[in-house]
Amino acid sequence: MRIALVGGAEARARCADAGFLAAWRALVASDTKHALVQAPEFVLPWYAAYAGAVEPLLVEGRAADGELVALLPLARRADGALVHAGAEQAEYHGWLTRAGREGEFLVPALEALRTGPGFAAWRWRWAPPGADTGWTAELAARGFTVVREERPAPVWELARGERLAGLLENRSTRAKFNRYRRRGELVLERVRDPARTRELLAVLARQCDFRQEVVHGVRPFADDARKLEFFVARQAFPEANHFSVLRCGAEPLAFHFGACDGRTCLYGLTSYAPHESKHSPGTLLLIELARALAAEGFRELDLTPGSDPYKQRFATGERVLVRLAFFTERGAAWRARAGGRARRALVGPLATELGLRPERLARLQCGLREARGELARRRLGGLARRAAGFVLERRTLACFAPPAVLPREPRAEAVRVQAWEELLALDAPASHPSRRVLLAETLERFTDGGVLYVLPGARGPERIAWRLPAAKGELAEVLVRAGWLAPQGELVRVLPPLGAERAPDAALALLVRALEQAEAPALVALEDGRTAEAAALGAAGFRELGRARLQRVLRERPSWQLEPAGGHA
Hints:
Strand content: 25-35%
Helix content: 25-40%
CATH architecture of the largest domain: 3-Layer(aba) Sandwich
Radius of gyration: 27 Å
Shape: elongated
Number of strands: 22
Number of domains: 3
Largest sheet: 8 strands, mixed
């Protein structure tokens, strides 16, 4: 087999040549493993969207007569880094070959690539299901240091209808479906039109950025201006993608965008409205997606690699995948092995042992990362404050009973309900150590059923408040025992200002708007309230009950103490 590295203008010309594309598609059709993200319908939109940021590099394998019999679609970034086409947006990093010719192609291909830049530490994502990786043994014999990692990955075989039937019979799942159906018609819509795709992706992007910043500290769309264009461009081949939106009436609840070929659909990019977290729209989307795929004749939903516990709930089976990494320096290979083992041994089991929900674990992780960032920047004062906040947390709430008749407050009309998108515009909220910590707290409260109220200011959101229906937890228990909060009552909690704006009427505006929507007797809590604000609430008819003080050590169960107004216990 003759190996050729084709890059730059010549590679771009190949990608525009009808004959080459026909040969490429023929390879995809003949390949026995998954090849959805090595197909031109995925690779070409990525090359186009990232033109200027990457240069296409096609590694070709040709027979003696010139026939294309193998292909490895790659790219080089501006810094010389070598990546698979799609990079981190490709669920699998793979290649295309005729059956049984993997070693004949990949061993000389990687030898040719090793002499160029970007190969010193080249880490692949998971190889596609069904990939033969036996050829790596020959690489090791030729002086390569190869690190292999194996992991079971979940798959949902759609022909096994008992899994879907069981999910639909689950009492909690039925209740969630019925809750939405009482609000409006619940529909899963498959989207093929590029214009409609662009419109919906703008919503998906905000949902995705919100959750991904909480969980991973990144904003995939805001940090990558080309990402949205890549997904829009993929819809030039609508049958190669399954883009769907779960709607309740006209309101989009959740999205999925994955590559497909009529037999297999990859569970790809997903998102859901954060304020709907309590009702599990992501779970309902996955159920409806499986139902739609089965009706369209698909055989499997590839749930893709990942340790997310929910995937195990839906999977009907597993298959073992392999992740490869290639190194020219043995020390780097050892560190890669050790780091992977440490992550697998610690993070998942620790979360399970502590009983942490994903959003709570993310909140803890982002606090630790913020502290690590301060240390890296050698801002020891900031590190000390973060460490002190992690070890010992103190908080004070000024508690008020609202008046029987709410006062008129002009700014209350400007308050926006469930406007979590506003928080994405903040750079450094004064009320929290970082935006990520604020978003993690927001997602946690949404999961508990909280309703968010945002007061816009001249330079972004000025202040926020939460209405917590059927308030629960240690604070609620203490307030109920003291008679300050009715059983199953609502707690309306105003947070400190987010920025430099400190208008005296901000807290009152938020409270009036939230109390107008209260569905049960409510208690008002003003966090770190200043004397002027407390006086303003008193003048508006709010009766101060006292202060609730929190002291918590090492994130243990919070301990709230009440100080009734007047200082008498």
